[in-house]
Amino acid sequence: MGRARTGAAAVSDGARERILAKVRAALADVPRGEEPEDVVVTRGYVRAHTGGELIGLLVDRLTDYRAVVHRVPAAEVAEAVAQALKRRGVRRIVVPPDLPTRWTAASSVVAVADEALAVAELDGVDGVVTGCALAVAETGTIVLDAGVAQGRRAISLVPDYHLCVVRADQVVGDVPDAVALLDPGRPLTWISGPSATSDIELDRVEGVHGPRTLEVVIAE
Questions:
Q1: pLDDT in tens, 3-28
Q2: Is 120 helix (H, G, I), strand (E, B) or coil?
Q3: Which of 41, 86, 129, 187 has the fewest C-beta atoms lying within 10 Å of its C-beta?
Q4: In whole angstroms, what is the distance from residue 196 CA to residue 125 CA?
Q5: DSSP 32
Q6: In a 10 Å sphere around its CB, with 0-12 CB exposed, 13-18 middle and 19+ buried, how is residue 111 labelled?
Q7: Phi/psi of residue 191, each to 5°?
Q8: What b-and-e string marks burial along 174-210, b requiring 16 or more CB atoms within 10 Å of the CB?
Q9: Max Cα–Cα distance, the chain, nearest Å
């Protein structure tokens, strides 16, 4: 038994040395730092894969996620919001306290400003209207960080319908661009289409952990 263990150890040591020798050979031309074990590797990662018209790409991605999308001039946001709420038959919405009043000025719906509303109260409204921190064109993702016109996270998760206004200058190309602009200390919510999941048989179920319907107005 002792010989068998010794033989196995010898084989293992030999394999280890062969692997390490290949690693040393592969790193032979790599510049080193001050310490022998520190290897300086220059990384030229591609930060973005997007090109061309970002808003068009964002619209395509959002549509793929089954979101309803509208591109309108900035001056027509109020009308676009009013029409969206009317088509859905919305009567009461919750809004962040600092949502621009002009966004809902053309609508007759009752806008309830969120002042720490209970979950049951949020669940009782027909939807929510918010702004966003930014939107990622490549992934069709809208990011909220509880900043201006966004409110706390709960108001964009509990109501079954979310209407989000995205300004054209808030659209970035890719996730690295978004991460560079966002504050990691803030409560970030990344939204890629309506809330949806699938069970083991791939049956799609929407509205499980967020709004069942996402509608986006892009103001250009």
A1: 555 556 666 778 888 998 998 888 77
A2: helix
A3: 41
A4: 21
A5: B
A6: middle
A7: -115, 115
A8: bbbbbeeebeeeeebbebbbbbbeeeeeeeeeeeeeb
A9: 88
- The domain at 54-219 falls in which architecture? 3-Layer(aba) Sandwich (3.40)
Beta carbons of 130 and 104 less than 8 angstroms apart: no
Distance CA 184, CA 128 (A): 25
Closest by Cα among 93, 89, 113, 63 to 162 = 93
How do beta strands 141-144 and 110-113 pair?
Answer: unpaired
3-state secondary structure 63-107: HHCCCEEEEECHHHHHHHHHHHHHHHCCCEEEECCCCCHHHCCCC
Please state, in angstroms and rounded to a whole number, the distance separating the CA atoms of residues 212 and 215. Answer: 10
pLDDT tens by residue, 92-141: 999 999 999 999 999 999 999 998 899 999 999 999 999 999 999 999 99
Does the pTM surpass 0.90? The reply is no
Which residues contact residue 54 at a Cβ distance below 8 angstroms, ignoring those fewer than 6 apart?
A: 137, 171, 172, 173
Q: Which amino acid is at 17?
A: E
Q: Give 3-state DSSP helix, strand, coil % of the chain, rounded to 5.
A: 35, 25, 45
The residues spanned by each domain of the chain are 1-42, 54-219
